Amino acid sequence: MTKEETWSQRFESALHPAIARFNASIGFDIELIEYDLTGSQAHVKMLAHTGIISLEEGDKLVAGLEKIRQEYREGKFQPGVDAEDVHFAVERRLTEIVGDVGKKVHTARSRNDQVGTDTRLYLRDQIQQIKNELREFQGVLLDIAEKNVETLIPGYTHLQRAQPLSLAHHLLAYFQMAQRDWERLGDVSRRVNISPLGCGALAGTTFPIDRHYTAKLLNFDDIYANSLDGVSDRDFAIEFLCAASLIMVHLSRLAEEVILWSSEEFRFVTLKDSCATGSSIMPQKKNPDVPELVRGKTGRVFGHLQAMLVIMKGLPLAYNKDLQEDKEGLFDSVNTIKASLEAMTILLREGLEFRTQRLAEAVAEDFSNATDVADYLAARGVPFREAYNLVGKVVKTSIAAGKLLKDLKLQEWQQLHPAFAADIYEAISPRQVVAARNSYGGTGFVQVRKALIAARAQLAQ
Ligand code: ARG
């Protein structure tokens, strides 16, 4: 059928050309073509299996669909707006290839269950690819972490120096976020992988189809129990967009840290030339475009989630053309996530150098060991709040005198409280401050080494 003709005998005239363009989804749903072909092949096999068409007709249709796949891959199949959407484009070409039997492909099916099937097959594939990319990203985080257990980095709360950390511990926090992302995609997959094929336009079909048969051929885990729900449910897409948004949140947080770290104010990392850009006017500049773009692209994924929620909220059952709007945001989110994950993985792997000397100086130059002085006294019987107040006083007088805690003489410590002894200096050294946080999940080196082993095991799952 071509849309230059009338829709059917019911119509008197063809579509206005502008309306045809407005209506068409072929410009973007061509992305689904391979899934559409696979879905249609399963459908005609089922039609033949159940005797709705003959085995011979089934074979012809399967082969014709395969021919279209080949033509598409060779760049020879490029349907235009006159085809309206990928489903019509395939049916029309199929009929050209196999003759009148091509007109049987749409028996016992509607584009409504068809497009739902295609979109799920597409998303199932893409989720697997994103999961693989997440694994690579996690692997690089882990590689860097393993080399930097003893590299110290300032830890912050409120973006104020708080307590020093093992750099590995800091990176493992992102590993854990990515681990949840990976698991979340697995959860989403379970609801993506349900077949609506055979739900028909909305109410099922008069033909003796076998929905389990097509589901099995297409590796779906289950089939929709209700035909109305099957053709109009987009929860799976919304769930994916939620998971996608969280992935972007995590990438964007890391991106933001890299941007801060590479600034002259922090100087914690150097960006390598392969992953940084210059300025067209300021010759001294080296800009962190990669993390900035990742941070920026986060917005569009959130936007697609919001758009999909709004598309769905007022839709009466069952299919409405509004649902055609589900695709571009979904495709763009998938592409954005894949590109962002790839870029961040490359940036970590080869675009970033931690300035360990500068990091060592940074953790030695501040009062981020103050908690440890209070803990020192508390461990020697002084109530913590009392110790906290004493140390607050020392910090104040030290700042006024332009000194750090390590510069105080033992005599000064003992004037403050008699419990202080010579081992206070060791207790407040950055290395010891980190090592001492040996509680489960803490930054102490022993804990971090255990966490690295556990992370390696998670990665191998
Ligand atoms: N191109 C349409 C979409 O993406 C396919 C389904 C059309 N169904 C219909 N009843 N007009 O949603």
UniProtKB/TrEMBL annotation:
Any single Pfam family the record assigns to this protein: Lyase_1
Pathway involvement of the protein, from the record: Amino-acid biosynthesis; L-arginine biosynthesis; L-arginine from L-ornithine and carbamoyl phosphate: step 3/3
CDD domains: Argininosuccinate_lyase (cd01359)
Enzyme Commission number: 4.3.2.1
Keyword Cytoplasm found: yes
Name of the molecule in the record: Argininosuccinate lyase
Alphabetized InterPro entries for the sequence: Arg_succ_lyase_C (IPR029419), Argininosuccinate_lyase (IPR009049), Fumarase/histidase_N (IPR024083), Fumarate_lyase_CS (IPR020557), Fumarate_lyase_fam (IPR000362), Fumarate_lyase_N (IPR022761), L-Aspartase-like (IPR008948)
Annotated Argininosuccinate lyase C-terminal domain residues: 367-435
Catalysed conversion reaction: 2-(N(omega)-L-arginino)succinate = fumarate + L-arginine
Keyword hit for Lyase: yes
SUPFAM superfamilies registered for this protein in UniProt: L-aspartase-like
Residue span(s) of domain Fumarate lyase N-terminal: 10-303
Localization (cell): Cytoplasm
Principal localisation: cytoplasm
Broad EC category: lyase
Origin organism lineage: Bacteria, Bacillati, Cyanobacteriota, Cyanophyceae, Nostocales
Any one Gene Ontology cellular component term annotated for this protein: cytosol
Swiss-Prot/TrEMBL keywords: Amino-acid biosynthesis, Arginine biosynthesis, Cytoplasm, Lyase
A molecular function (GO) term: argininosuccinate lyase activity
The species this protein was found in: Nostoc flagelliforme CCNUN1
Family from the record: Belongs to the lyase 1 family. Argininosuccinate lyase subfamily.
Lineage top rank: taxon: Bacteria
Name of encoding gene: argH
Biological process annotations from GO: L-arginine biosynthetic process via ornithine
